[in-house]
Specification:
4 helices; 31 strands; mainly beta; 9-stranded antiparallel β-sheet; elongated; 410 residues
Length: 410
């Protein structure tokens, strides 16, 4: 191949996919954390496999390449893309565009570009995966905010409460995590509302939690900056419940109970709101352990500068560990009811929404809707079951009114 032809092929590249945000490291086909993945891309790569995810919106032709360099001349790597494998040699010791080949995409969706070293004692830097394509808007990947992009999109069920249902005192719902969907780093939030949230987390291989938090009305990411008059006050908490403050995504009061919740089991969540005379609101959270047929108090907080019943009801699913954003996870949200002075009212309509990671199209691996008359949320894993943001869903009412004696709650 002449130098002139090589240069012509380089000019085809009009999309740069930074490995800093879009590449993942595999060892024995398992994703691992690795210090070769830096803010400047892949640095000093000497073993394992590199996988980069890219979304193509339409079928068509494209060219594939790399911005890379090697510390040793004539370093061979194997490239796997779209069910095709090819060996290429890197000879340049300064960053340059490397042509891999021409390909054809047959359908829309996520594709992975896999790179594998074929040499020992190699050391390679890869800044970008390069793509040459007629329409650059058809190529989607994590372009900015790499931390949030690697965490993956957060998704929400916004419950549509009838206008006739006012002054909501209690919000009840049920949540079940299917087998195999209990991915570490997941927060399955069952009962969210304007001012706080309540759900379960998979924190590590050995720990899971029930988490209930209330935001302070004072806007800051640092709890130490909250004036005394704006602090969330803990009024009481349940057995073995830890309490404290949280920050970084707003600030406020937090409580959690270490609890080994299981997949395939429906758990109940109940949140209460009681406005008080001194311009404060008391929020109380109870967790129903269906294995023991028992309600458990998690915590009760007082939020100052607030006088309201429950509003803005929603559920969400998020991944809070960036390196876990490569795994998909799912939650099933069912039997939503609200209670006011007129009794219980079933909620069976939702609007599906997602965060900025999804809205900016940094990631498209998210979905939500109805499955077997139960609302579901799914995210991460570079799956292709995408649902349009803003879609509304309505399930069939079940009539399974919660059987709760509020007088037994102290």
């Amino acid at each position: 191949m002449s130098c002139k032809n090589k240069e012509a092929q380089k000019l085809q590249f009009n999309v740069q996919v930074p490995t800093a945000g879009n590449a993942w490291v595999l060892e024995n086909n398992n994703y691992i954390q690795s210090d070769i993945l830096t803010k400047d891309g892949i640095q000093n790569w000497d073993n394992n496999k590199i996988r980069t995810y890219v979304y193509f919106k339409n079928k068509g032709n494209l060219s594939l390449g790399l911005t890379a360099k090697t510390a040793t001349k004539n370093t061979k790597i194997k490239v796997s893309f779209n069910n095709t494998q090819k060996e290429i040699s890197l000879t340049n010791t300064k960053l340059d565009s490397i042509f891999i080949g021409n390909y054809q995409i047959e359908k829309e969706g996520y594709y992975n570009i896999d790179l594998e070293l074929l040499e020992e004692n190699a050391s390679i830097n890869i800044k970008d995966v390069l793509i040459g394509i007629l329409n650059t808007t058809q190529v989607l990947f994590i372009k900015d905010e790499f931390y949030w992009g690697r965490r993956g999109p957060s998704v929400h069920l916004n419950y549509l409460v009838p206008k006739s249902v006012e002054n909501i005192e209690w919000f009840y719902s049920e949540l079940m995590i299917p087998k195999g969907q209990d991915v570490i780093g997941s927060y399955y939030m069952a009962n969210g509302f304007s001012g706080g949230y309540f759900g379960i987390q998979a924190n590590s291989k050995t720990e899971r939690r029930i988490l209930f938090s209330i935001w302070s009305p004072y806007k800051t990411d640092k709890p130490s900056e909250i004036p005394e008059a704006y602090k969330i006050k803990l009024l009481k908490k349940g057995n073995e419940v830890h309490s404290g403050e949280f920050g970084n995504e707003g600030s406020g009061g937090q409580s959690y109970k270490v609890f080994s919740w299981k997949t395939g089991i429906n758990y109940g969540f109940l949140i209460g709101s009681k406005p008080t005379k001194n311009n404060s609101t008391i929020y109380t959270a109870y967790f129903y352990n269906s294995e023991e047929n028992k309600w458990n108090l998690i915590a009760q907080f007082k939020r100052p500068k607030t006088h309201t019943y429950l509003k803005g009801l929603y559920s969400f699913l998020e991944n809070f560990i960036p390196e876990q954003g490569v795994y998909d996870r799912k939650g099933l949200f069912s039997n939503q009811w609200v209670y006011n002075k007129n009794g219980w009212h079933e909620l069976n309509k939702i609007k599906f929404t997602a965060d900025n990671t999804a809205r900016k199209q940094n990631r498209l691996d998210y979905s939500g809707g109805i499955e077997n008359n139960v609302f579901y949320l799914k995210n991460c894993g570079f799956t292709n079951d995408n649902i349009e943001i803003g879609t509304t869903f309505e399930r069939i009412k079940t009539g399974k009114q919660p059987q709760i004696d509020f007088n037994k709650f102290n």
